[in-house]
Design brief:
Elements lengths: L3 E5 L4 H12 L3 E6 L8 H6 L6 E4 L5 H11 L3 E4 L6 H6 L1 H22 L4 E7 L22 H20 L3 E6 L2 E2 L8 H13 L6 E3 L5 E2 L2 E2 H12 L6 E4 L5 E2 H11 L4 E4 L6 E4 L5 E5 L17 H7 L7 H17 L4
Parallel strand pairs: 1-2, 1-4, 2-3, 4-5, 5-6, 6-11, 7-10, 8-15
Antiparallel strand pairs: 9-12, 13-14, 14-15
The structure holds NADP nicotinamide-adenine-dinucleotide phosphate and ligand G4F.
Ligand G4F binds next to α4 and α7.
Length: about 350
């Protein structure tokens, strides 16, 4: 019989790639999205899957909404990808972030426990939980030290998932995913913001790209590779928690250098901290500047993951290199900015 899945937070970056992947595996896919005034599911359109998924309205703040839906559709798998996922905003909206990213997870687990006990559950945990890292690289056994309200809320989501697995024998897994990007990344995250900015400057539509901390280091992979790992977790023999990461780390500055190279800029860096600027070697013009408004009250300086367990137990490995990821993002952005809908 055809398998079925509900993706909660399906309208986001990972949700779209996961929906596409599950459709390729011949699943019936319910896409849980919030009702908004401008229902523009551009990511489904981008992947050409808008007619193949069934949209269902789902608001994680609304307990009875979650319970009714979970009870009605009786799916084999639920992937919870919904979150207030922007770390910067979590400092301004800490309570809302906890409501969705922490308590929201418990609402889903309760609905499964009460109304759909056979359903397998995936929780989108995050490397942000490692925060002020206690060891390098970070693995499933590294102690957590979150540095943002987002990281703290996600830590609750992580532990409540594990708790329901142990207490009620539920098939509930937590994927501790390191940063993963794509042309479908939200425009406020640093990789996409950098690519939009540099491509716009190259096309003469923008002067300077303003960013915050250029020294932060992240383990950046391709989102399309990571959704495969989510599915492998829910289709393993036993429920468990896994890190998904590339094992390589690069600074924001290094990401900028790579994206600039794809656009035929060669960046030269001058100054430090808030006074740092990146200039284009050919023209001498300032292309990147630091704006302290983008600094965070507490920063995560270095993330680099060890995905050995996922490799050994699930056979998962990232397929896309850093350079491939950057050029894929740059090419897509240039096409978007110069295409018929620009
Ligand atoms: P994203 O693009 O921001 O997508 C998050 C989705 O959650 C959006 O579709 C959003 O809906 C939905 N959502 C937010 N609040 C909701 C609510 N109250 N009720 C129902 N839906 C709600 O994030 P992503 O990059 O795809 O990440 C997917 C998940 O993985 C998130 O939980 C994120 O925290 C986690 N994660 C991401 C990364 C990464 O590097 N991408 C790494 C580790 C973990 P709208 O479209 O209506 O806003
Ligand atoms: O792209 P970011 O906003 O991603 P961040 O904070 O690492 O969070 C992402 O990855 C997490 C996994 O570790 C996810 F759980 C989370 O949902 C999200 O997907 O920022 C990356 C780094 C930070 O250190 C930030 O301070 O880039 C630095 N940065 C420098 N200038 C900037 C900017 N970040 C943003 N968004 N905008 C800037 O102008």
């Amino acid at each position: 019989m055809k398998k079925s899945a509900l993706i909660i937070g399906a309208g986001g970056q990972d949700g779209a790639y996961l929906a596409q992947f599950l459709l390729q595996k011949d699943y019936k896919v319910y896409c849980g999205v919030r009702r908004t005034a401008s229902a523009d599911h551009w990511r489904f359109r981008h992947l050409g899957i808008e007619r193949d998924v069934e949209l269902v309205y789902l608001e994680l703040a609304e307990e009875s909404n979650v319970a009714r839906l979970v009870s009605r559709i009786q799916v084999d798998e639920i992937y919870n990808l919904a979150a207030q996922s922007y770390v910067g905003t979590s400092f301004e909206q800490a309570i809302y972030t906890a409501e969705i990213d922490a308590v929201g997870v418990c609402r889903i687990l309760e609905a499964i426990r009460n109304y759909s006990a056979h359903t397998r559950f995936y929780q989108a945990s995050t490397s942000e939980m490692y925060g002020k890292v206690m060891e390098v690289p970070q693995s499933e056994t590294t102690p957590f030290y979150p540095r943002s309200p987002y990281g703290v809320a996600k830590l609750y989501g992580h532990w409540i998932t594990r708790n329901y697995r142990e207490a009620y024998n539920m098939f509930a897994c937590s994927g501790i995913l390191f940063n993963h990007e794509s042309p479908l990344r939200g425009p406020e995250f640093v990789t996409r913001k950098a690519v939009i900015g540099l491509a716009s400057i190259r096309l003469g539509r923008m002067e300077i790209l303003n960013l915050g901390n250029l020294d932060a280091k992240r383990d950046w992979g391709f989102a399309g590779d990571y959704v495969v790992g989510m599915w492998l977790m829910l289709n393993a023999q036993e429920a468990d928690d896994y890190v998904l990461a590339t094992g390589h780390t690069r600074s924001v500055r290094e990401f900028l250098n790579a994206a600039a190279t794809c656009l035929d800029f060669e960046l030269e860096w001058h100054g430090s901290g808030e006074s740092e600027v990146g200039t284009d070697r050919k023209t001498g013009k300032t292309v990147v500047a630091v704006d302290a408004a983008f600094y965070r009250p507490a920063e995560v300086d270095l993330l680099v993951g060890d995905a050995t367990k996922a490799h050994q137990k699930l056979g998962w490995k990232p397929q896309t290199s850093f350079d491939q990821l950057v050029s894929m993002m740059v090419e897509a952005e240039v096409a978007r900015l110069t295409g018929p809908h620009a």
